């Protein structure tokens, strides 16, 4: 590793805006954390129903989406890094890749919602499950839609931010010396990624017979 | 004094933040923390009087044990409007967003907060949330109580619950932005040499408050969102018919709303520390202990929420834990009261209006805090919960504590904020009228509670009438007391005499600049004192002779 | 460059852990299934926060802020469990 790259890598990221953004991320953690909390308590009250309901989710789509989003997190981190090192064109390409992966995630998610609706898994409609555990399974799918929905909204906001960054880097508004906005966007994007890291096991992997 | 100096040159009209543009547009687009503070100040004053009007109507109705003015439904809407408006649109933004916004950059020797545009955005978001609440009121109001307990709020209430939830939800983001801004400001913008233990306790208090705002408010936002979804879609995790848990809503709600009490009280403690040291002319007793107590209250404040749920169906074991933790949080609170008292001891005390309000704060907070111990005790709470004892207790904390301290701060820094002096006799009179009116209003409610009058009831047994009349009489005195400052402070802002830069001889950095401060806050870099509150009571005593 | 390779290495680790997590769900371990896959989630999150979010190069303040949110959620859940783990079951 060259000495200059090392120096860039070691820059402590604690400017005013970065501290501010991290505080915002902490509040986002609380925001999603409350949902995870609600999920956990409800699952404690309905362990069997949650296991059964989780088996109805589409594991393939969920896993592919996890792969897509984790990869977008890499391209985003690389995009910020490229810009820091002055590789503007690489940064533009990586941002475009991140944007594309984000859109792919949303497309797959929409298709998955479509499948869920077709399979009568929407808890406030004509629900597929009846019997003793139906109530608990409805609660599982309520949380499923709320949590993935909140995640999708954050992702959509992220896509808007990324578009602005893409245009900004392509036009030279954000440069090697002025890379902060892209760095902040990368932090936010990684947080959205982190949320899926936890949503994936608790929604898709509770019980796989 | 030399007689050679003929007469002081007429003070040149210096530009300050108030003269920097007079148009409404210049105010609505400002990023100056001092102007944003005033925007907040005007907004919350309006909400204070709306919320106060609701309370006045309730007290009028309660003069009689039978209905005289309104229906039971209207009464429910009034106490809900009073609670929602006073909590989220007056008390929570009161000291942090007005005095805090104005003073934090001055006290740390900065030009502005760290993120000025976010600061302005927070006011707009607050105003938007406020609009929703006004719309709620016009559309008929809400009757759930400010706590929005499910299942009533989701399944049964026929009122505009969704509008109200949206209003509170939106306002939450303004709290988060304000808190975030203060945290970054205190960490990053302190003047060189101004170390943590040279900061005024007011800054400590606002800093701790900001941490609570950032960590607790998102929880409230998400909780209200879940509640709204349950109301709209007809099911949710609080829905007992599906095996959901209504008590879970209370856990979530109070995880925000108990720390919210400290959002209201910690800044009040900060104000009291500033005012009491200044008018006792003594350094605050146990500065570090005071700072640590603030941090401890903020931290422990997050661990006691379950004491709101002793009679809500919570497990007895949980209640034991929460009861114990609630006693713990009394310790740092008591430390603060002892230290204020010790600060007064052998001080050179004068009784200007801010000091009267601050002393009122200490006394009323003490009563509120001690009655809190009754309610933290598991056995007592089963009896007293849902009675007027609780109402009296939290009004002693929130009105006797926070509002008194807000007035103390407002009077203390008014000359700095406006550059004008106010009527000293009028303000002292108002302080005394408010103190008397407050006690007459709420002390009888302790007795009513012990005698078993339930809270939130519209009709009551006739033998409670005497104390209710006392309380209502007190409320009318209190209302008069609150109108007085509105009159003399408005008069002062328009016609008051020019205030000197440091009318109280106080020590904080904010007093080193002009009154009102210039746009950039300081003409020259302020000098950082070796220690905060460097007052000398003996010199003050000498000077007074 | 090494730091690019490092980021790619982190990504490979996260993806590999994803595979382990998914695979573990098919091994019947009772309640340990969830413990395993959530623990893997924490490891993945740690990797993402350390390298992609650059906490490794951050100052103390930023690191403190980063863990605070998590600590507070633990506080919320932990104290709530005093209620939910000690309730008497209601006969259905």
Briefly say what this structure is:
Chain A is mainly α and 209 residues long.
Number of domains of chain B: 1
Give the CATH superfamily of chain B: Cytochrome c oxidase-like, subunit I domain
- The CATH class label of chain B is Mainly Alpha
Shape of chain A: elongated
- The count of domains of chain A is 1
Give me the Rg of chain B, rounded: 23 Å
Spans of at least 5 consecutive residues with low confidence of chain A = 1-12
Q: If you average the pLDDT of chain B, what whole number results?
A: 94
Q: How many β-strand runs of chain B?
A: 0
What level of helicity do the residues of chain B show?
A: 55-70%
Polypeptide structure, described:
The complex is a heterotrimer of chains A (209), B (545) and C (92). Chain A has 7 helices and no strands. By secondary structure, chain A is mainly α. Chain A has one domain: Cytochrome c oxidase, subunit III, four-helix bundle (Four Helix Bundle (Hemerythrin (Met), subunit A), Up-down Bundle), CATH 1.20.120.80. Chain A is elongated, with a radius of gyration of 20 Å. Chain B has one domain: Up-down Bundle (Cytochrome C Oxidase, Chain A). Chain B contains 16 helices and no strands. The N terminus of chain B is likely disordered. Chain C has one domain. The longest helix of chain C is centred in the last third of the chain and has 25 residues. Chains B and C meet through α8 and α10 of B and α3 of C.
Topology:
The complex is a heterotrimer of chains A (209), B (545) and C (92).
Chain A: H1 3-10, H2 16-45, H3 47-54, H4 59-84, H5 88-118, H6 134-171, H7 180-204
Chain B: H1 24-28, H2 33-61, H3 72-107, H4 116-138, H5 152-156, H6 161-188, H7 201-233, H8 246-280, H9 287-300, H10 316-344, H11 353-376, H12 378-384, H13 388-418, H14 424-451, H15 465-495, H16 537-544
Chain C: H1 2-24, H2 32-52, H3 60-84
Helix pairs in contact in C: 1-2
